[in-house]
Amino acid sequence: MSLAIRFWTLVVNMLCIPMHVINAVGLYKMYKRVFPMVLRSFSVSYNQKMHERKAELFRSLSEFTKPGGKLTILEIGCGTGTNFQFYPPGCKVICTDPNPHFQKYLEKSMKQNDQLTFDRFVVTSGEDMASVGDESVDVVVCTLVLCTVRDIPQTLREVHRILRPGGAFFFLEHVVADSSTWAYFFQHVLQPAWYYFGDGCKFVGLRGMYKRLFPFLAYNITFSYNDKMHKLKRELFRNLARFKNANGTLRLLEIGCGSGANFRFYPNGCTVICTDPNPYMEPYLRMSMDVNKHLSYEEILVLSGEDLREVQDESVDVVVCTLVLCSVNNVENVLQEARRVLRNGGALYFLEHVVSDPSTWTYFCQYVFEPLWYLLGDGCMVTRATWKNLEAAGFAELHLKHIEAPEVSLMIRPHIMGYSIK
């Protein structure tokens, strides 16, 4: 079946080329306006078929009410509000969804379910619920949502953060079928088309499998990239020692450290904190640590750049971020986290590929091939104007220049490099 799956998946991918192009030029965003209407129609049928299952799932919600208080529920990806009918009367509901076009349909559901109190609607993804306080809700609900988020572990970390001790997470999700079934075959073959029509819905774990392979690829690619970028990296990091603290030491945090390709450029004796959202990078990271004994290593944290809560405010002298802002979910949040953990007078060093000038063929290729690049590059986006985010990030000083990286792929040739001072 494996060979058949690969063949038919290729066929469906070829048939989806128009959808890839539509997505590449930005027209797919128009579908996000229509998707709430499509989902509303679908959810009526789904709720009828799943009514008994949902009633069974949510029957114990009231058990998580705080003594003497009102039950507070936060729903991730609330969509059109199809779960409201199952919530106990009098509970308070916080609604979140990354698609703002759901609000109109959500308000209709709110009126139909006036037995509930609706606190607010927050336009945000499950991976980043910064506007919701720690330990502030009794229950988090998540139904048919984890299939669409970019980072399931990060979403679950956010759930854990906002739940009070003793609170509960209720979920209902479709998953990949047993590999011996025809359902498994069709899930894999039709995934490319389903992804677009389902607004990013994934029912197979191929990308999760690729995350295990990606560190191996990245480790080998970085040798070539470092050779080509050696002079530019030396130039970028040459004044790192300027930001030593009052004790004469340098504490450096690297976001998305990957396989440790930057370690050789750091000054002797500095202390490095490594962060990366992919836990499978660690074996390659430790290989680089063994080679770069001129540094001391504090810890390895499996964290995304948007959520560095395990790092204290104003606790590091330098933050380094190279070839990372292309793949994060929210560039603005990463930069705000970098500002938070930097001491006053500390610096953020960056080296990032960016979108090309619109008048160039590079720009054309970046937009056309970005969907494929995104998949092969573990979420890498080649059409980001990251310099605009840095300009708006609120640093006291910004030293930035645009460069053309030598001998690298046309898709990532335009770069920016420099540093910002808090």
TrEMBL record:
This is Methyltransferase type 11 domain-containing protein. Residues 74-171, 253-350 form the Methyltransferase type domain. The lineage of its organism: Eukaryota, Metazoa, Chordata, Craniata, Vertebrata. The keyword Transmembrane helix applies. Keywords: Membrane, Transmembrane, Transmembrane helix. SUPFAM superfamilies: S-adenosyl-L-methionine-dependent methyltransferases. The chain crosses the membrane at residues 6-28. GO terms for molecular function: S-adenosylmethionine-dependent methyltransferase activity.
